[in-house]
């Protein structure tokens, strides 16, 4: 169990983490979501006592991280795949970590096998690909066979097979009763792995909910209708007591009524339909809406003609 | 890359009743646990220092400088060149003075490379006591440097004495080997402290080279000026002349002796290492 209480972190002028309070419970995978720069990595660094909080505290099973006597057997963390000395072999990297916590050296071979790096154990990690580095970082997190696992964007740089492996790994770790806390930008990825969600934006807590609840409230299912006789269709639906929302592009959207019923209703009134399609709002859209107000680093799309460069160019 | 085995297989050894019990209390590892101590940190740092090439390279350069220059001197001079009353052992000085450079480099790198690569985050996650990490690094590095320097100075002293002859006292022999090695280890430790404070390899190494060479260079420039007091001070306490003390050569009259030189370097190192311990606990990594 990880408890975060009133956690804040200020870097100069910038408030990177702003009064976060939440808990990460054992036995489930907790997804930690937020757009770029939301403060996920900063929060994780503070959980591990690498960065000192400006305010608030983190407790791991009631203890401060610094008070853990053999932390690797308690908490395994993957922060950054490149948080290692590239000149050292994978084996020696893990060996020095194991030794610092009094973990038997035999565990090194075991975790290397788990992540599939046995063949390159004696190679210097400098030459590793991003995905291999990620696997080595995961091996380090598993070294002490800890009850709490923390992964900062673990699927970064992994191939589809690797992503699949990581998903199953996290689920099975949680199924064994461990606490699994994993950050990501990708709602779709989390929907597949996480049981619980903590969403932050600009350092503030936006949501702390179970995945099932999040899906229920955010994945609105509705039926989209398009007809050349839109006005009549509207009236018909209205008379039938069905609420209609006019969406863009001349389409109508209806919540909570099956598409079959709507089709039959239109047929009865001899209305032509160009579209009758059940829709499901994606979780990704829901996530983007949730964090819309707190996205710091917006990309700007190429200016359309008549705007930006185009218009100034014309005046010359 | 090989196909990763499934994690289920990894933890499959947990027995069924144990697993039931875990369902209520969270996961309990089958890996035997015990509290980590400074001894574990020392073992870890020993693995780290022996598993990177810069250790090998820096010590190789140091050995080459100390032994190479000593041997060249032994070959270039003959027994007749030795002034009466002088010991050939003292000629090892030049090699050791240059050999300090790679030792300082390694001292800096031992800590700053962890910051440069990001390894420090992994290290401190494994051992949250920053004092223990820095302490273990300092002990391992200093001990290793002392031993390697002792081997180098003993060998070069023996070569010089054997080929150039002359008489030597037990005291001079002791200072030129054990004393010098302790002094070199202290300078290395000082470099490690500077590396821990600056966290930047190139910056810290440059600073250390300046620390060794600048006072002497400055003193030479001051020769033309009336500031004799300052010049004498710089000459006396610059690292090269402090090192010379161990060989019984000294640039100015009344310069401090071997114990004093060790005391000065030890004090300086203690202050900077103390500062590093103090500062690192207050910084983010
Ligand atoms: N050491 C630091 N010094 C100054 N500012 C920092 C530092 N670390 C993080 N920040 C700032 O704090 C904010 C949060 O950064 P953080 O890395 O925690 O975000 P994140 O959620 O992990 O983002 P991403 O998804 O891109 O990894 C950012 O705006 C970043 O610029
Ligand atoms: Mg991040």
Automatic annotation (TrEMBL), chain A:
Annotated ABC transporter domain residues: 2-227
MF annotations from Gene Ontology: ATP binding; ATP hydrolysis activity
Signal peptide location: none
Record key words, sorted: ATP-binding, Nucleotide-binding, Transport
Superkingdom of origin organism: Bacteria
Keyword ATP-binding included in the entry's annotation: yes
InterPro entries given in the database record: AAA+_ATPase, ABC_transporter-like_ATP-bd, P-loop_NTPase
Family: Belongs to the ABC transporter superfamily.
Protein name per UniProt: ABC transporter ATP-binding protein
Organism name: Streptomyces finlayi
Lineage: Bacteria, Bacillati, Actinomycetota, Actinomycetes, Kitasatosporales
From TrEMBL, chain B:
Pfam families attached to this UniProt entry: ABC2_membrane_2 (PF12679)
Gene Ontology CC annotations of this record: plasma membrane
Assigned keywords, A-Z: Membrane, Transmembrane, Transmembrane helix
Span of the signal peptide: none
Name of the protein described by the UniProt record: ABC transporter
Transmembrane annotation, as ranges: 56-77, 89-111, 138-166, 172-198, 205-224, 261-279
Domain of life: Bacteria
Keyword Lipid metabolism attributed: no
Keyword Transmembrane (UniProt): yes
GO molecular function: ABC-type transporter activity
């Amino acid at each position: 169990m990880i408890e975060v209480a009133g956690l804040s972190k200020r870097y100069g002028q910038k408030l990177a983490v702003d009064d976060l309070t939440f808990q990460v419970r054992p036995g489930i995978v907790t997804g930690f979501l937020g757009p770029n720069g939301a403060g996920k990595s900063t929060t994780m660094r503070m959980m591990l006592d690498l960065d000192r909080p400006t305010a608030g505290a983190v407790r791991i099973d009631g203890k401060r991280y610094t008070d853990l006597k053999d932390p690797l057997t308690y908490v395994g963390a993957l922060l950054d795949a490149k948080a290692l000395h590239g000149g050292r072999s994978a084996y020696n990297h893990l060996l020095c970590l194991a030794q610092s916590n009094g973990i038997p050296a035999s565990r090194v071979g075991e975790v290397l096998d788990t992540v599939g790096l046995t063949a390159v154990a004696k190679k210097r990690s400098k030459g590793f690909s991003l995905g291999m580095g990620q696997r080595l970082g995961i091996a380090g997190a598993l070294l002490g066979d800890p009850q709490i696992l923390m992964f900062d964007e673990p699927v970064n740089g992994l191939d589809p097979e690797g992503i699949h492996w990581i998903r199953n790994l996290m689920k099975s770790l949680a199924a064994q009763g461990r606490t699994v806390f994993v950050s990501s930008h990708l709602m779709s990825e989390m929907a597949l792995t996480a049981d619980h969600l903590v969403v932050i934006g600009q350092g503030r807590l936006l949501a702390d909910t179970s995945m099932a609840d999040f899906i229920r409230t955010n994945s609105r299912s509705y039926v989209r209708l398009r007809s050349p006789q839109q006005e009549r269709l509207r009236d018909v639906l209205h008379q039938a007591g069905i609420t209609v929302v006019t969406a863009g592009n001349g389409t109508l959207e209806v919540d909570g009524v099956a598409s079959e019923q709507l089709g039959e209703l239109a047929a009865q009134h001899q209305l032509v339909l160009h579209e009758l399609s059940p829709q499901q709002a994606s979780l990704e859209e829901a996530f983007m809406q949730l964090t819309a107000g707190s996205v710091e680093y917006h990309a700007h799309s190429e200016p359309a003609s008549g705007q930006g460069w185009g218009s100034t160019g014309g005046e010359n | 890359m090989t196909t990763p085995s499934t994690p289920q297989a990894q933890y499959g050894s947990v027995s069924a009743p144990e697993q039931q019990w875990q369902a209520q209390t969270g996961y309990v590892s089958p890996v035997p646990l015990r509290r980590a101590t400074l001894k574990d940190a020392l073992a870890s740092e020993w693995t780290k220092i022996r598993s990177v090439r810069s250790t090998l390279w820096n010590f190789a350069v140091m050995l080459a400088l100390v032994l190479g220059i000593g041997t060249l001197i032994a070959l270039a001079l003959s027994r007749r060149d030795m002034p009466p009353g002088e010991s050939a052992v003292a000629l090892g000085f030049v090699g050791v003075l240059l050999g300090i450079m790679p030792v300082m480099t390694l001292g800096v790198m031992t800590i700053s490379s962890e910051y440069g690569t990001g390894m420090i985050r992994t290290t401190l996650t494994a051992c949250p006591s920053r004092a223990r990490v820095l302490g273990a690094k300092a002990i391992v590095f200093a001990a290793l440097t002392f031993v390697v320097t002792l081997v180098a100075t003993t060998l070069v002293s023996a070569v010089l004495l054997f080929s150039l002859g002359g008489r030597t006292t037990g005291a001079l022999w002791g200072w030129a080997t054990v004393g010098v090695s302790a002094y070199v280890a202290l300078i290395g430790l000082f470099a490690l402290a500077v590396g821990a404070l600056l966290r930047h390899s190139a910056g810290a190494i440059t600073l250390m080279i300046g620390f060794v060479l600048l006072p002497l260079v400055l003193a030479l420039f001051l020769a033309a000026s009336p500031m004799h007091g300052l010049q004498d001070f710089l000459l006396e306490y610059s690292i090269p002349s402090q090192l010379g003390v161990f060989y019984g050569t000294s640039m100015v009259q009344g310069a401090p002796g071997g114990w004093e030189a060790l005391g000065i370097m030890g004090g300086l190192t203690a202050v900077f290492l103390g500062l590093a311990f103090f500062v690192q606990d207050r910084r983010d990594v």
